[in-house]
Amino acid sequence: MSIKELLKKYKDPKNFFNRDLSWVEFNRRVLEEALNPDLPLLEKVKFVSIFSSNLDEFYMIRLSGLKEQIVASIHEPSIDGLTPIEQVRIIEKALKPMIKKLNDLWINELVPSLEEHGVELLSFSQFTEDEQKKLSEYFNKEIYPVLTPLAFDPGRPFPYISNLSLNLAILVKKPNGENHFARVKVPNILPRLLQVDEILHPGKKTDVNGAFHAKFIWLSDLMWANLAGLFPGMEVIEAHRFRITRDTDIELQEDEADDLLSVIEENIRQRRFGSVVRLEITNRMPEFMLETLMENLRITRDDVHIVEGHIGLSDVMTLYGLPLHELKERPYYPVTPKLFDEDEDIFTTIKQRDILLHHPYHSFTPVIDFIKQATKDPDVLAIKQTLYRVGTDSPIVKSLIEAAERGKQIAVLVELKARFDEENNIFWARELEKVGAHVVYGLVGLKTHAKMTLVVRKEFDGVKRYVHLSTGNYNAVTAKIYTDLGFFTCDEDICADVSDIFNYLTGYSKQKDYRKLIVAPINMRESMLVKIARETENVKTGGEGAIIWKLNSLVDPAIICALYEASNSGVKIDLIVRGICCLVPGLPGLSENIKVTSIVGRYLEHSRVFYFYNNSKEEIYLSSADMMQRNLDRRVEISFPIEDQKLKNEIMKSLLKITLRDNVKSRLLLPDMTYKLHDNGDSTKKTNSQEWMMKHSLKAGGEAIEHS
User: Fold this and answer.
1) pLDDT at residue 638 in the model
2) Most exposed among 395, 577, 585, 589, judged by the fewest C-beta atoms under 10 Å?
3) Calpha distance 663→668 (Å, rounded)
4) pLDDT digits (tens, 9 = 90+) for 525-556
């Protein structure tokens, strides 16, 4: 059945969940982890921070886009039948009780619980008179010089308010009785939560009678208590906290760009001035002050969020760094597979077997060592790599720089359009260019999201290629908290495909056919549809059909319609979708053979795995791509096959099947778009898939998943 026929048959609004409402439900699952009574205290604090930072990005990107459509009078409904204005109303209605629940949790449960464990978050008035004096002295010495009070009057325009900056709106009275509005920004170069033990008692240990003790004050509270010093000769009548969120999804005009790097740099500057999409205020802010902000920020009452508590709870991640290990999950240290110690030469190891690493259960060190050894090996002629989000202190980029300095051919695609990592990527691109590496910034109109490294090495029997492919970024930090799969191979067909893709990225190529890799935007959607249709046909002709997918998001209408067709034909489908899912499962006559689950746990589920039963000739593909239009149409992505039976068995046994057995962190998606936790009861054995994988990796003694 063609894409057109699939869409005609199944493209009914009732057959699709709204993408952004599905995201709201994902963040609800994050909130549920913060509310989870079984989690240690600081883990709850961590999920409070994650929920808040997720929400900030949602407003900056998704809500801002919907509001742009409303301003532009776009009334076209999305595939689920909702217009932009309907979506915004429903989203805001769904979010408000969640935000209230979060603030209630923070104020009434977590703050008192922290205090019970020696961590006090105090207001200025709760300190003793002597402590207040010391805090004010610290303020005058360390904070006051950084602050810039900005007045607003006929001679001075309303000040620029930066995105996500916390501010104090202040009413001051002159000696002549005139009232004026002023604003002071809480500096983001200082921690929002200030630990003050050293200020109050220099040199004193934080352990009191063997127990940890620490005092904190919100920086904004310390500023509020010392505002008089910023307005000498005037009376501070009142001050209230507020924060704005701006539209940061500025459209790139790549087709008109002579220099993409310059365009990205300008985009970063313009992002600062995006329109305001959210104003957060405290519940005590007076009406006249709110109206002043609304008028000058050019927003409506619908854009105002009244917060009963602290604004910007993403800042509480600071507390997670406290040395209170009993209040966190038991630490897990990734295992370095023993096989990498068997041979000093990593290329000999890869030549002997295909190797699959499962991060963070397996260490990311072998990936770093792969690049380091290629850098130092005199027989290595060239290294080619794609970089999407590499981090601020990347050992991999440092090795690439060293390799270029050693005279090796280095070609790197640095994706400048990786949202919120643009500045970091620009820095590394320039550092690579300085040492003579060939640096390209991607293709016009496309993001390069594929994760590939190619090493070309001269050996006694000729030139040989080695590759590392991954579902996740070349980032040593996120590799400790994201679950991803990395694959080492010297398979000639895969290596040849990777070479061809690099030629496509760095030169001019119209290649459409690849030996083993599936490549977006060239053939990924079509390939996946063919494989789904094959399962459908196998069932229709008396065989069996089964699909198991693990991914972050499922949005693409054609893929969803094909899954509906497969379900209606009797194909058993299990989908493990961490985040957004627009497919409606469990509906008779549509999706009764489709089960959707989601895991939100200790680690961020990030790997993408696509399994097809194929009449017992099982196929497994790993991928950098989710099934979304942006991935399939507007990104360079790869899916790569796992062909060795031992590797397939291990993926099935130690990843897919154990994830489907999870009844602790797994939630089942219902036809009304709500999620249901498993009801274990007393007789059901509890299975936490991430805990199982940690124990499995340790029990295996550091054995990587390898070709036999």
Assistant:
1) 96
2) 589
3) 10
4) 999 999 999 999 999 999 999 999 999 999 99
Domain stop point among 459, 476, 506: 506
Tally of CB atoms within 10 A around 284 = 11
**Does any domain span residue 609?**
yes
Residue 505, phi then psi, degrees to nearest 5: -80, -35
Pull the structure tokens for residue 349. 């190891």
Instruction: Enter the pTM of the model.
Output: 0.92
Q: Helix, strand, or coil here: 555?
A: coil
pLDDT tens, position by position, 436-478: 888 887 777 888 899 999 999 999 989 999 999 999 999 999 9
Is residue 449 annotated as a catalytic residue, yes or no? yes
- Whether residue 126 is contained in a domain is answered as yes
Q: Reduce the DSSP state of residue 415 to 3 states and report it.
A: coil
**CB-based contacts of 519: which residues, under 8 Å, 6+ apart?**
450, 497, 501, 636, 637, 638, 639
Nearest to 369 by CA among 332, 333, 344, 351: 344
Burial of 652 (0-12, 13-18, 19+ CB in 10 A): middle
For the chain, the maximum distance between any two Cα atoms, rounded to a whole number of angstroms, is 92
Per residue, the 3-state secondary structure of 317-328, as one string, reads HHHHHCCCHHHC
Percentage of the chain exceeding pLDDT 70: 92
User: What are the helix (H) ranges across 406-520?
Assistant: 422-434, 492-506
Instruction: Please check whether residues 486 and 532 belong to one and the same domain.
Output: no
- In this structure, the answer to whether residues 601 and 643 fall within a common structural domain is yes
Q: Please state the domain count of the chain.
A: 3
Element containing residue 30 per DSSP (H, E): helix 19-34
Could you read off the pLDDT of 186-231 as tens digits, one per residue? 998 899 999 999 898 887 766 656 688 999 999 999 999 999 999 9
- What CA–CA distance (Å, rounded) separates 367 from 628? 28
Which tokens sit at 177?
């009785």
Number of Cα atoms under 13 Å in the Cβ half of residue 268: 16
Is 301 strand, coil or helix? Answer: helix
CATH number at residue 178: 3.30.1840.10
What the block records as the tokens of 689 is 């898939």
> Among the options 305, 358, 362, 449, which is catalytic?
449
In a domain, 1, yes or no: no
Q: With beta carbons less than 8 A apart as the criterion, state whether 598 and 666 touch.
A: yes
Q: Do 416 and 270 share a domain, yes or no?
A: no
- DSSP letter, residue 175: T
Secondary structure of residue 528 in the 3-state scheme: helix
Co-location of 251 and 157 in the same domain: yes
pLDDT band at 707 (very low <50, low <70, confident <90, very high): very low
CA 89 – CA 302 distance, rounded (Å)? 9
Q: Are residues 495 and 522 in the same domain?
A: no
